[in-house]
């Protein structure tokens, strides 16, 4: 084995270079490592060859390169066989070079390699000291490194090597490092000082966490702890944002998390960290919101790790600070302060037994709570009131003991009244009291609740229908009384509500009830006051059985036409009253009287149901479902059986959904799809609740009657009955699968628009698709293969290219997608779902009738939801959608880019990809699918200019673009020309108002984020906005004005 002249020359060129480039390093290392791995030379040959230059004091650059090259060889050689003598020589050699500033980088890299690859041998080595005792080699190297290397004076790479080495030692050589004692803490403190690189900061924060948390206190003196804290606090707050095109992958959240962990790594830091963060929350400088929010988030994290003792010690200071900031300033970080209050109290009370009130609670917490309650009682006109109320609610949520203290403080501050008069709550306090009761923890005694209930009743008595302003307070007062009545005696409240609804019968509430009855008599059932009173009566009645008997008799006598709200709301009162009577524990004559009254009540409810038809039909079903939404017992079983008898079930099952797809008033105009789905949901829920409580044979009879109706019906009856199908699943699938299977052809016919009587009925299509998904999803496991085989026989040919009409192709695509969606939801059906997806994708590769409608299929898998307020079909679980994007999205993009494909196929693949991306969460789409998002968005913008009819596709494209801007995707600024010009054109030229609206949303987001880059497009943007101001759609005009204002306002700033 010889060191060839070629290798010598390569090494010499490397060492002699003024600057070692990446290309030179890689080329030289490749040659030498190839020879080393092939055993052509030994590592010793390289050491001998470099000996002269490594010891040449007149050649600092050569020394640096030589040491680095030796370390690289040790690091990258495949098989490093060294004995203990070799390791000792290398270790001492690198240790000696630590004092040479030029050689520090290579020396540290060499030591790190030895610790990584020769740890076992290093553990056997000792170094003689002046005291004559040998110390472990690892300890000696660590001490020398901390002493000799002035870490802050070196470049980022050297600093990172030192920090990596120290981190490795702290993880795997803890015993040896512990022997350093205070030198360890001092060395770490010096090493991380003035660090600014995010890569090194992550390691620095971790080192502080380890030295303070994992090592004995002797390794960090009090002065060192103070020094480490000052270093850590100098980085707060962290506002780091990755630069454009960042490839390191470190985010601001990573740094903030690491800093928080370092802050709370030791109890010794609690005395320093908690006051510091509280002071930081009072920062009045420019970026106050970000600083305050970060301070409170970090405080909560640290308190959870410091534990109860530290939290108790600083609790008073925390509460005072939060109260000052929330009640005395106009901070926008109230939620963060409230969370800090909750967390500090929760941590402080960890381990406190239930019912025990610690001594510090009365000293540090109760006075603060009383001051907050006094502030909260001043009313919403006071600056301190709203903030104090939020703080009290946050404190109440922390622990049952604190809730009790908050309740006492609130009662003392909020109950008002002159001497000799009943105390009451101010109207302004009603909503706050309701929120406080919503967060109730623990059990209150009647003594604690009675003053509040009396005060709430007195407040309700003062609210009269003199103006519209009094309507909202009535709703709030009823809600407050209702919540208090659940916990205490409620007869007075229930009597007052009944009188307000159905008429007065004398007594102290007579005048109040008369006023409200007259006012409500002309109101519909949807009126907030009517709804509040009816719900309150229904909820409290089971607790007051005597009142239930009197209400039952009154309901049987009252005319359903005496008030406008009665026809729709009375069935709810009738059902709840009958249920209250049925569940009462009565015997003998009382029991018989109860049953007779209950039967009469439910019979009247069924009569009212039949009288209404489509108008109010489904509101009544929803109210009956609410009444039955209880655990099954003797009372609910009896009521369910009586309702079924009164409605004529099971023979009259189709009548339950009668009028589902027709207009409320029986006119020619059909209801919207959203309205039909809302009605269907009410009918399904009623059927589900009813079957839950009926005896098994009766429930099965109802289910089979519905299944027979679906299988044998047509026209609107088929659509109406199909809408009810999900309401009897999965029970019907488990017990009557043969009947369920017979409904499949009819459901598919309805969903695929193949029934001539239901042609082009979007409502029938929507409800049938839901029914189809429910059938496939709930089919017994053993029956799934046969079900899917029948499905393939029905629609498979249309996916493979058989001749068919466009309507048939569209229907097949929708049904196929619904079945696929159901399979994706089923556990253990992934392979079957994958096969269905593959068949759908293959339809894009051939002239299949389904091909052009594949985008529609993907919108079934990932439903469109443009407005948050409007419901959409249920989406797949997030993980299923994410997995779908990983398996299907690449195939769709390859088809969208394939030049040899037909134009329609490329267009359909692109629209399908856009639909899938729109279904993903913004975080997943912008991280896992960034390149796909860029391609689809930019390509689709070009296509939108050519296809003015693509409304849903256009809305989804703009939705993706807005998400990309909000997530600060770098490609948006890189491709501004491809974004701004199409948007400025589409904002006035596209036929769909929703698309034009989306264009202005994109412009506003771009102006706010990238105004400086938009100067070249000033003319186009202003022209587009001015055309938008004259748009025929009011919403578009408003957003165009907002975009124009943003352009001028941001520009002036």
From TrEMBL:
Domain MMS19 N-terminal: 49-326
SUPFAM superfamilies, per database record: ARM repeat
Keywords: DNA damage, DNA repair, Nucleus
Origin superkingdom: Eukaryota
Pfam families in UniProt: MMS19_N
Annotated PANTHER family: DNA REPAIR/TRANSCRIPTION PROTEIN MET18/MMS19, MMS19 NUCLEOTIDE EXCISION REPAIR PROTEIN HOMOLOG
Family listed: Belongs to the MET18/MMS19 family.
Protein name: MMS19 nucleotide excision repair protein
Organism expressing this protein natively: Durusdinium trenchii
Taxonomic lineage of the native organism: Eukaryota, Sar, Alveolata, Dinophyceae, Suessiales
């Amino acid at each position: 084995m010889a060191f060839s002249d070629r290798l010598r020359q390569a090494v010499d060129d490397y060492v002699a270079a003024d600057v070692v480039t990446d290309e030179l390093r890689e080329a030289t290392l490749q040659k030498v490592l190839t020879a080393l791995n092939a055993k052509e030379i030994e590592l010793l040959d390289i050491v001998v060859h470099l000996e002269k230059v490594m010891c040449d004091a007149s050649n600092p650059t050569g020394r640096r390169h030589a040491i680095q090259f030796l370390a690289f060889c040790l690091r990258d050689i495949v098989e490093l066989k060294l004995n203990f003598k070799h390791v000792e020589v290398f270790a001492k050699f690198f240790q000696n070079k630590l004092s040479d500033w030029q050689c520090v980088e290579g020396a540290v890299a060499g030591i790190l390699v030895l610790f990584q690859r020769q740890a076992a041998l290093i553990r056997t080595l000792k170094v003689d000291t002046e005291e004559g005792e040998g110390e472990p080699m690892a300890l000696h190297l660590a001490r020398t490194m901390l002493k000799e290397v002035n870490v802050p004076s070196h470049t980022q790479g050297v600093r990172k090597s030192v920090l990596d080495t120290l981190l490795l030692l702290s993880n795997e050589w803890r015993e040896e490092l512990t022997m350093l004692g205070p030198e360890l803490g001092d060395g770490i403190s010096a090493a991380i000082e003035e660090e600014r690189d995010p890569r090194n900061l992550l390691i620095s924060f971790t080192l502080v966490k380890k030295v303070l948390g994992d090592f004995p206190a002797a390794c960090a003196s009090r002065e060192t702890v103070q020094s480490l804290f000052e270093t850590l606090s100098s980085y707060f707050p962290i506002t780091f944002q990755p630069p454009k095109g960042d490839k390191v992958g470190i985010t601001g959240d990573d740094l903030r998390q690491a800093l928080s962990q370092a802050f709370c790594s030791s109890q010794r830091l609690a005395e320093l960290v908690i006051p510091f963060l509280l002071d930081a929350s009072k920062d009045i400088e420019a970026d106050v919101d970000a600083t305050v929010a970060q301070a409170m988030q970090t405080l909560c994290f640290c308190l959870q790790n410091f534990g109860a003792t530290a939290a108790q010690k600083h609790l008073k200071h925390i509460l005072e600070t939060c109260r000052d900031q929330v009640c005395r300033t106009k901070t926008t970080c109230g939620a963060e302060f409230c969370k800090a209050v909750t967390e500090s109290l929760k941590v402080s009370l960890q381990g406190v037994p239930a019912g025990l009130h610690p001594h510090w609670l009365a000293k540090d917490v109760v006075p603060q709570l009383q001051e907050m309650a006094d502030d909260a009682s001043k009313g919403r006109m006071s600056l301190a009131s709203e903030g104090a109320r939020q703080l009290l609610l946050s404190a109440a949520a922390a622990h049952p003991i604190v809730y009790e203290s908050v309740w006492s403080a609130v009662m003392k501050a909020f109950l008002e009244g002159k001497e000799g008069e009943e105390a009451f709550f101010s109207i302004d306090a009603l909503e706050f009291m309701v929120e406080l009761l919503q967060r109730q923890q623990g059990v209150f005694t009647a003594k604690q609740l009675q003053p509040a209930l009396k005060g709430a009743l007195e407040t309700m008595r003062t609210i009269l229908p003199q103006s519209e302003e009094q309507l909202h307070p009535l709703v709030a007062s009823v809600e407050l009384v209702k919540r208090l009545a659940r916990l205490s005696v409620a007869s007075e409240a229930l009597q007052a509500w009944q009188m307000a609804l159905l008429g007065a019968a004398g007594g102290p509430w007579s005048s109040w009830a008369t006023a409200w009855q007259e006012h409500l008599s002309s109101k519909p059932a949807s009126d907030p006051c009517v709804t509040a009173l009816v719900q309150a009566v229904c909820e409290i009645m089971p607790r007051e059985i005597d009142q239930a008997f009197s209400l039952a008799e009154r309901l049987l006598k009252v005319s359903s036409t005496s008030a406008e709200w009665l026809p729709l709301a009375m069935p709810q009162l009738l059902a709840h009253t009958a249920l209250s009577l049925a569940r009462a524990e009565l015997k003998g004559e009382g029991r018989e009287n109860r049953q007779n009254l209950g039967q009469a009540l439910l019979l009247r409810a069924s009569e009212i149901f039949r009288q209404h038809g489509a108008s109010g039909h489904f509101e009544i079903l929803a109210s009956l479902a609410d009444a039955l939404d209880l655990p099954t017992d003797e009372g609910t079983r009896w009521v369910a059986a009586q309702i079924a008898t009164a409605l004529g079930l099971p023979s009259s099952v189709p009548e339950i959904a009668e009028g589902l797809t027709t207009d409320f008033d029986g006119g020619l105009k059909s209801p919207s799809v959203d309205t039909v789905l809302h009605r269907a949901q009410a009918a399904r829920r009623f059927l589900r609740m009813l079957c839950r409580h009926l005896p098994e044979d009766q429930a099965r009879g109802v289910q089979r009657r519905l299944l027979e109706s679906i299988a044998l019906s047509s026209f609107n009856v088929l659509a109406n009955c199909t809408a009810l199908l999900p309401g009897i699943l999965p029970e019907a699938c488990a017990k009557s699968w043969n009947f369920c299977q017979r409904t499949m052809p009819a459901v598919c016919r309805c969903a695929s628009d193949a029934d001539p009587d239901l042609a082009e009925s979007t409502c029938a299509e929507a409800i049938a698709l839901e029914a189809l998904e429910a059938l496939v999803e709930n089919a017994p496991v053993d029956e799934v293969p046969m079900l899917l085989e029948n499905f393939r026989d029905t629609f498979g040919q249309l996916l493979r290219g058989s001749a068919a009409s466009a309507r048939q192709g569209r229907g097949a695509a929708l049904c196929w997608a619904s079945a696929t969606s159901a399979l994706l939801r089923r556990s253990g059906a992934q392979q079957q779902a994958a096969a269905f997806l593959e068949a759908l994708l293959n339809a894009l590769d051939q002239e299949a009738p389904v091909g052009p409608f594949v985008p529609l299929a993907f919108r079934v898998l990932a439903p469109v939801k443009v407005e948050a307020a409007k419901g959409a079909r249920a989406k797949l679980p997030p993980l299923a959608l994410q997995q779908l994007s990983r398996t299907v999205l690449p195939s769709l993009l390859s088809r969208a880019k394939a030049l040899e494909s037909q134009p329609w196929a490329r267009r359909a693949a692109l629209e399908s990809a856009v639909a899938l991306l729109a279904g993903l969460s913004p975080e997943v789409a912008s991280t896992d699918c960034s390149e796909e998002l860029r391609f689809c968005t930019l390509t689709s913008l070009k296509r939108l200019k050519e296809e003015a009819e693509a409304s849903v596709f256009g809305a989804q494209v703009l939705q993706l673009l807005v998400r990309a801007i909000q997530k600060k995707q770098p490609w948006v600024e890189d491709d501004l020309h491809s974004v701004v010009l199409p948007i400025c054109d589409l904002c006035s030229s596209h036929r769909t108002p929703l698309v034009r609206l989306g264009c202005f949303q994109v412009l506003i987001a771009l102006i706010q984020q990238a105004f400086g880059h938009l100067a070249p497009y000033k003319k186009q943007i202003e022209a587009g906005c001015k055309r938008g101001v004259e748009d025929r759609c009011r919403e578009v005009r408003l957003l165009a004005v907002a975009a124009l204002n943003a352009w001028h306002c941001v520009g002036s700033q």
